[in-house]
TrEMBL record:
<dbReference type="InterPro" id="IPR030395">
    <property type="entry name" value="GP_PDE_dom"/>
</dbReference>
<keyword id="KW-0378">Hydrolase</keyword>
<keyword id="KW-1133">Transmembrane helix</keyword>
<dbReference type="GO" id="GO:0016020">
    <property type="term" value="C:membrane"/>
</dbReference>
<dbReference type="GO" id="GO:0008081">
    <property type="term" value="F:phosphoric diester hydrolase activity"/>
</dbReference>
<comment type="similarity">
    <text>Belongs to the glycerophosphoryl diester phosphodiesterase family.</text>
</comment>
<feature type="region of interest" description="Disordered">
    <location>
        <begin position="313"/>
        <end position="336"/>
    </location>
</feature>
<keyword id="KW-0472">Membrane</keyword>
<dbReference type="GO" id="GO:0006629">
    <property type="term" value="P:lipid metabolic process"/>
</dbReference>
<protein>
    <submittedName>
        <fullName>Gdpd5 protein</fullName>
    </submittedName>
</protein>
<feature type="domain" description="GP-PDE">
    <location>
        <begin position="1"/>
        <end position="216"/>
    </location>
</feature>
<dbReference type="Pfam" id="PF13653">
    <property type="entry name" value="GDPD_2"/>
</dbReference>
<keyword id="KW-0812">Transmembrane</keyword>
<feature type="compositionally biased region" description="Polar residues">
    <location>
        <begin position="322"/>
        <end position="336"/>
    </location>
</feature>
<keyword id="KW-0325">Glycoprotein</keyword>
<feature type="transmembrane region" description="Helical">
    <location>
        <begin position="229"/>
        <end position="248"/>
    </location>
</feature>
<dbReference type="InterPro" id="IPR017946">
    <property type="entry name" value="PLC-like_Pdiesterase_TIM-brl"/>
</dbReference>
C-alpha cells in the first residue's frame, strides 16, 4: 500500500519506539500496512510544533491531529480532489522489499484508480518516464534539476521543481520562453512569496500555506528605479551625518591646549634626576660626619722640569684623649 512519509524511518514522526521498539530503526517501507495503521503520527506534531501553528488549532482540530494516523496515498488523493495540484515523488524501497520491482506500477494504479485528474499531477520521479507517459499521458512530467533545454525536451519535461535559490530572474524568463513552468520550494515567508510573485513564478511549495493563502497580492510593489533612488538617498543622508559628526567633534576639541608628550616626559626626567642627585649628596655628607673620616684629595702638579706630589699617606683615627684634634703626616718629595 503506498503511503506518505517524509523520513526513511518512523522514529521522528511516529510513536514506533513505544509500539514496535524492535522495528524503530528499520526502514518505514519494510513494515506492512496493518502495523503502520497502529502508529500515531500526530502527537509529535503537537509536541514539537514545527510550524508554530499548534496554538491556532481549535479543540476539535487538536483532538483530530492528536489521533492522526499515517496517511495512505489513496486517502491523500481523496482529500486533494478539486482545485489542487499534487507533486508526487517516490522513494525506492530497500533491495529486500517484496515489491521493489513493481512499486512503480502499484503507485500508478493507485493514482489512476482514485479518479484524480491527471493534468493536476506533477510527476517528479525520474525513473521509467516512458512507462509513466504510456500509462498516464496526462501527468505533468517534472524535473528536479537544471538541465540543458535539449535534454529537457527529449524527456518531455513540462515543469521544473527547484529550490528558490537555484534560479535567477533571467533564467525564469528563459524557461518561460521555452514554455517551461517553474515551481520553487520551500517558500514560507510572505515577503519571499511576494518577491517571487512579482518575478513571475507560477507556483511555490510551502510549509506555511495557511499564511500565504491570506496574501491576496504582493506586499509591496516598487519599480526598480524608485528602489534604487531610495537606497541612493539613504546612502547620501548617512554620509552627510557621518561628516557632520566628525566636523562637530573637531570643533569641540579645537580649544583644548595641546601638549608635546616628549617635552613632558623630558621635564619630568630632569626634575627626577636633580632630586636624586641632591639626596645622594646629603647621604654622603652625613656618612662622613658619622664615620669621623675626612677625605683628602690627591693632587698632582706637573711642570716642565719637576713635579710635586702631595698624597694622603696616613689617616690617624681620633683617640679618646685627643677628640678635638687630628694627626696628619705629610711627605714631601722633590726632585729634578
Amino acid at each position: 500500500v503506498p503511503f506518505l512519509m517524509h523520513d526513511t524511518t518512523l522514529r521522528r514522526t511516529t510513536n514506533v519506539e513505544q509500539v514496535f521498539p524492535e522495528l524503530a530503526r528499520r526502514p518505514a517501507a519494510m513494515l506492512n500496512w496493518t502495523s503502520l495503521q497502529r502508529l500515531n503520527a500526530g502527537q509529535w506534531f503537537l509536541k514539537t510544533d514545527p510550524f508554530w501553528t499548534a496554538s491556532s488549532l481549535s479543540p476539535s482540530d487538536h483532538r483530530e491531529v492528536e489521533n492522526q494516523s499515517i496517511c495512505s496515498l489513496a486517502e491523500l488523493l481523496e482529500l486533494a480532489k478539486g482545485n489542487a495540484t499534487l507533486l508526487l515523488n517516490l522513494r525506492d524501497p530497500p533491495h529486500d522489499h517484496p515489491y521493489r520491482g513493481s512499486f512503480l506500477n502499484i503507485t500508478l494504479e493507485a493514482v489512476l484508480r482514485s479518479g484524480f485528474p491527471q493534468h493536476q499531477v506533477m510527476w517528479l520521479f525520474n525513473r521509467q518516464r516512458p512507462l509513466v507517459r504510456k500509462m498516464a499521458p496526462g501527468f505533468q512530467q517534472t524535473s528536479g534539476s537544471k538541465e540543458a533545454i535539449a535534454s529537457l525536451r527529449r524527456g518531455h519535461i513540462q515543469k521544473l521543481n527547484l529550490h528558490y535559490t537555484q534560479v535567477s530572474h533571467q533564467e525564469l524568463r528563459d524557461y518561460a520562453s521555452w514554455n517551461l513552468s517553474v515551481n520553487l520550494y520551500t517558500v514560507n515567508a510572505p515577503w519571499l512569496f511576494s518577491l517571487l510573485w512579482c518575478a513571475g513564478v507560477p507556483s511555490v511549495t510551502s510549509d506555511n500555506s495557511h499564511t500565504l493563502s491570506r496574501v491576496p497580492s504582493p506586499l509591496w510593489i516598487m519599480p526598480p528605479d524608485e528602489y534604487c533612488l531610495m537606497w541612493v538617498t539613504a546612502d547620501l543622508i548617512s554620509f552627510s551625518l557621518i561628516i557632520g559628526i566628525f566636523v562637530l567633534q573637531k570643533w569641540r576639541l579645537g580649544g583644548i591646549r595641546s601638549y608635546n608628550p616628549e617635552q613632558i616626559m623630558l621635564s619630568a626626567a630632569v626634575r627626577r634626576t636633580s632630586r636624586d642627585v641632591s639626596i645622594m649628596k646629603e647621604k654622603l655628607i652625613f656618612s662622613e660626619i658619622s664615620d669621623g673620616v675626612e677625605v683628602s684629595d690627591e693632587l698632582s702638579v706637573c711642570s716642565d722640569s719637576s713635579y710635586d706630589t702631595y698624597a694622603n699617606s696616613t689617616v690617624t683615627p681620633m683617640g679618646p684623649q685627643s677628640a678635638g684634634s687630628r694627626a696628619k703626616t705629610f711627605t714631601e718629595q722633590g726632585g729634578h
